[in-house]
Write a structure and sequence with these properties.
The protein has about 100 residues and is of the alpha+beta class. The chain has 2 domains: about 1-30; about 35-95, Alpha-Beta Plaits (2-Layer Sandwich), CATH 3.30.70. The protein contains 3 helices and 5 strands; from the N terminus they run H-E-H-E-E-E-H-E. The strands form 2 sheets. The protein has a 3-stranded antiparallel β-sheet, covered by helices on one side. It has a two-stranded antiparallel sheet with strand order 2-3.
Length: about 100
C-alpha cells in the first residue's frame, strides 16, 4: 500500500466514523424529543381566560377556554406550563407522555 493509498484509507475511515457518530447522535436526539399531553377539565374551568393570555395553545370557546393542540412538543412546554400554573382553579394538566 503506497503513501497516497494510506491517506485515502485514513480519510475514508475518519469520514465513516464521523458519519456514524452523527447518525447515532441524531437518532438519539429524535428519540429523546419528549411529547406532552395537555388536558383542560371543562367542568373545573371558570372561564377566566388566564390560560389564553399565557399561551396560544388555549383559545376562548364560548364562556370557557379550550385546548387547540392536545399533544405538544418539548419546544411548546414552557408556555403551556405557564398556562397550567396560572390557572386559578387548576383546570389544566400538562404531563409527559411516557414512551
Amino acid at each position: 500500500m503506497g503513501y497516497d493509498s494510506r491517506i485515502d484509507y485514513w480519510i475514508i475511515n475518519v469520514v465513516e466514523k464521523t458519519l456514524r457518530t452523527i447518525f447515532i447522535n441524531s437518532s438519539s436526539l429524535l428519540l429523546s424529543m419528549a411529547k406532552y399531553k395537555v388536558e383542560l377539565d371543562e367542568k373545573t374551568c371558570i372561564g377566566c381566560m388566564a390560560c389564553t393570555a399565557a399561551c396560544e395553545n388555549f383559545v376562548p370557546n364560548g364562556s370557557k377556554a379550550k385546548v387547540v393542540k392536545a399533544i405538544i412538543e418539548q419546544s411548546e412546554l414552557k408556555s403551556n406550563r405557564d398556562a397550567e400554573e396560572g390557572c386559578p382553579v387548576q383546570a389544566i394538566n400538562v404531563k409527559k407522555i411516557e414512551e
